[in-house]
Design brief:
Elements (H helix, E strand, L loop, with lengths): L4 H9 L7 H8 L9 H13 L16 E2 L12 E3 H17 L4 H17 L10 E3 L5 E2 L8 E2 H18 L4 H15 L16 E2 L18 H9 L7 H8 L10 E2 L2 E2 L29 E2 L5 H18 L16 E5 L5 E5 L11 H5 L6 H14 L1 H4 E2 L2 E2 L2 E3 L4 E3 L2 E2 H15 L2 H7 L2 H10 L2 E2 L5
Antiparallel strand pairs: 1-16, 2-3, 3-4, 5-6, 7-8, 9-17, 10-11, 12-13, 14-15
InterPro entries: Glycoamylase-like_cons_dom (IPR019282), UCP028431 (IPR016883)
Pfam families: Glycoamylase
Protein name: Glycoamylase-like domain-containing protein
């Protein structure tokens, strides 16, 4: 099943639980006669990848499909299934698309209004949305038998996008203000306190049929930091800071003294303490949450993410498993579609300790804020040298094994979304600025003991 990344890691590893001429030229210039500048190339990637959330969104809801298969073949007949977390990244992508001029603001606002209305009628569970939603009906699509209710982590990715949209539109026209208000009300309706189950920790799931039986407390470190930030920032259903410190940070046990390639890991990555986890852990929480100058008593979050990315890069450069092509311009391990031994398409949480010979373009591309030189090397290699086999309707395909002349010619929202958003943050910082300057986010970060010189926290 797709998007098993965290659940796979959890149960396998966790011990605890624009439209102007120049931009058109950037995209259409495929002859290779005139090399694109880095800025033109980045714009081409950002614009093409944005199509996932515009051209190929689920038509009824306007939200991000869980997956998009350009060939139209959906073995599980799930082209109408939307993903909550990926749609959060998609909300930020829509803001980026309006800002870059890929769509007009009027077009973007119309889509955002449609999304807000759909989410307002969709199934919710103590305010939280489910992982998957049927785009036709708004009803929950179970992610698993007992995972048929609220998914707090996916909800946190979604509401981070909602806050970003609200901040972008709040001082605009009357229509823009009205849409901003809709998203504000949706975010304030999430009952984060419920998801503590009266303990000093947040829980991932709650089901109306199975209650707390999934029993997955959110303990760090993985991709779930933003869940605690959102919960602490809520003006309506906030949590006590103890949940963060005792639950997520394990009363200090989250800190790691380990190094790899002489690079400190800083925090203990659940089930991946030697090399760090899949690179989406450095992306999902940080599409809005700006790690620049962000610290608390456990970590400097810029160093944390840069270091994880550099370790992942060094592993691919050193290439201990002798995978064909791995190197300084072909690297990046994270959860994505994968190549099964028989050459068919599967799914896997790739990371240095689970290297399957598959490179996921989102790993390096979404890390461009941390490793601009190394990430550009991967982008340029794929675009200049392997475009025919790696580039499609919505940007670079989800997963590649060039040594096996193989690519998963499919896309996932949770992989394309961070690419658009992190390229935007690298180019302009827009999404970071919007999210970090939201008043309740500043209050929530302060409550948890975070400091940020960049934002005066």
């Amino acid at each position: 099943m797709i998007r098993i990344s965290v659940l796979f890691l959890a149960f396998a590893f966790f011990s605890c639980g624009s439209n102007d001429k120049s931009k058109e030229n950037a995209q259409e210039n495929t002859s290779g006669v005139t090399a694109l500048t880095d800025e033109q190339l980045l714009d081409a990637v950002q614009k093409q990848t944005f199509k996932y959330f515009w051209d190929y969104a689920e038509p009824n809801s306007g939200l991000a499909r869980e997956r998009y298969h350009p060939d139209g073949n959906y073995p599980e007949n799930d082209s109408n299934i939307v993903t909550t977390g990926g749609s959060g990244f998609g909300l930020m992508a829509l803001v980026s698309g309006m800002s870059q001029g890929y769509i007009t603001k009027e077009q973007g606002v119309e889509r955002l209004n449609k999304i807000a209305d759909f989410l307002g009628k969709a199934d919710r569970f103590h305010g939280a949305w489910s992982h998957w939603i049927d785009g036709n009906t708004g009803k929950v699509k179970p992610f698993g038998t007992k995972d048929n209710g609220g998914d707090l982590v996916e909800t946190s990715f979604l509401v981070a996008g909602m806050i970003t949209v609200r901040e972008y539109l709040k001082d605009g026209s009357e229509k823009e203000k009205a849409v901003a208000q809709k998203f504000d009300a949706l975010w304030k309706g999430v009952d984060w306190q419920w998801y503590t189950n009266n303990k000093n920790v947040l829980y991932w799931h709650w089901s109306p049929n199975y209650a707390w039986q999934m029993n997955f407390p959110l303990q760090g470190y993985n991709e779930c930091l933003i869940t605690y930030v959102m919960a602490a920032s809520s003006p309506t259903h906030t949590i006590d800071a103890k949940a963060y410190h005792e639950g997520w940070a394990r009363s200090g046990g989250i800190v790691s003294s380990k190094t790899k390639y002489n690079i400190p890991l800083i925090l203990k990555h659940n089930g991946a303490e030697e090399f760090g986890g899949p690179l989406f852990w450095a992306h999902y929480s940080y599409v809005g949450l700006d790690p620049n100058q962000l610290t608390d008593k456990y970590a400097n979050y810029w160093d944390l993410n840069v270091n994880q990315t550099k370790i992942n890069y060094q592993f691919c450069v050193q290439n201990p498993n002798k995978n064909a092509g791995y190197g300084s311009d072909y690297w990046g391990l994270t959860a994505s579609y994968s190549r099964n031994p028989d050459g068919s398409i599967g799914y896997n949480a790739h990371m240095p300790s689970n290297d399957q010979g598959v490179i996921s373009p989102t790993a390096a591309i979404s890390s461009i804020v941390y490793t601009p030189k190394e990430s550009m090397a991967l982008i340029r290699n794929l675009y200049d040298n392997h475009k025919d086999e790696t580039w499609g309707d919505a940007g670079f395909y989800d997963a590649l094994s060039l040594g096996n002349k193989w690519a998963a010619k499919r896309y996932l929202a949770i992989d394309q979304g961070p690419e658009v958003v992190m390229i935007e943050n690298y180019r302009t910082g827009l999404l970071w600025k919007l999210f970090m300057n939201a008043p309740e986010v500043k209050q929530g970060l302060t409550k948890l003991g975070f400091k940020s010189g960049k934002y005066g926290i």
